[in-house]
Amino acid sequence: MRILIAVVLLGFGISLAAQDSLQFSLDDVLELAKRNHPIVKQAGLQDQFAEAEIRTAKGYMDPKLESSFNRKEYKGTEYYSKFYNSLKIPVWFPIDPKIEAYRNSGEHLSEENYVSSSNDYWQFTAGVSLPIGKGLFIDERRALIKQANIYSDIAEAEKIKLTNKALFTIVKAYWEWYFAFKQYELMQQSMNIADEIFKRVKLDYEYGEAAVVDTVQAKITFQNRRADFINSQVQLNSAKLALSIHLWSNEGLPLEIPEGASPSAASSQWIVPADSTLGKIVTWAADNHPEVTKVTAKKAQYEVEQQWNRESLKPQIDLSYSFIDAPISYSGFEPIDIGENYKIGMDFSFPLLLRKERGKLQKTKLYVESLEFDYMQTQQQVGAEIRSVFVELIASEQLTSQYLDLSRNYQRLLEAEIFNVENGESDLFKLNIQQDKFIEAQIKYLKVQTTFEKLKAELPYVAGLPYLSYMEMYE
Questions:
Q1: From 3.90.740.10, 1.20.1600.10, 1.10.10.1150, 3.65.10.10, which CATH number describes the 2-57+142-303+363-474 domain?
Q2: Which residue of 88, 208, 283, 286 pairs with 64 in a disulfide if CB–CB is 3.0 to 4.6 A?
């Protein structure tokens, strides 16, 4: 049995060591995903959505050119010919400049539209309109622009949310592959050792050094190990495929994990924060978590709408004043004389019951109040999730250390049992029991190790840190 002992010691002596292969680290996977993953690229579109929203709102401030032409001629008589042009230039302040140009002629033109033939029937006006009631402090166009600017915060929060979700999914898939790969290695080593033991026991039986029951026991062990190996191979292939769906080339083509590639436990992405750091994470997330940001931004949008609805309770009073043929005239530029050649006007409207306006104001007040409650609840929920994951993380770190020690101790027991078999103080039955316990301890260690690594990434995920990076808190 001395050759048998040597084989067993060699096989289990390397069970905790990595074999030579192409290392495919988590850092490599994440860097590739940040550049090429479709969901990450989709998240990047949120910035463009925000730009489009702002551009649409700013369209209400675009200068507007209007023109109209009407002419009537009947039985050889030109009743009228009216050509009207205007340029409106909205500005942020509630004063709207306006330039108008008329060319009116005809025998039956109304006196209101009459223009002297001395200037070839042309007349120019330049003036402004000013709301002194509704719309003085805020109007619909200014409200829309403010809300569009606030929407950029919602878009940024949604971008972070989508990106983080994709990256965290990749992290979990990577560590599932890591677990499946290490389990596959362990099962392969166990099967090879069981096979070698079976061959050596048969050889010993032929020389009369082992009983037939020993060969049966060795064969059963080999068959069990081989079944476990096949199952681990299936799990490894599934885990590789689950991770491969997140791998994309620069050209947008799907990639696969290359044959012979192996995962690496080394990663510089995350650490286990100290207890003192937990408070900083919770404080940061209370103001900057994507869900908190979205609620805050929506509340700000409704507050702008509330301001406009409150403004709508005022009467509509619009004043307008325009110079006629000054400072622009048919012959060029003319000096301004406020007391001569002008148009002045006032428009007034006011709904007597204000039911529509008061209803809108009441609704926005309720929305703001509802979002205030939502804000408080979201902050509380985010803080609770961070603390919960942190507690799991610390416990998982301790469990990982415990199961690693446990696995090493079972390896020592296995080596001791091998020594006993060598000296005739034990048998294959007891050796298989120790071997099973060692494999079970190794599997438990791998499970808690992968859980621990996932939790290290889950903490920045539940905190809403962009790209799951703690550096965001210190910028």
A1: 1.20.1600.10
A2: 88
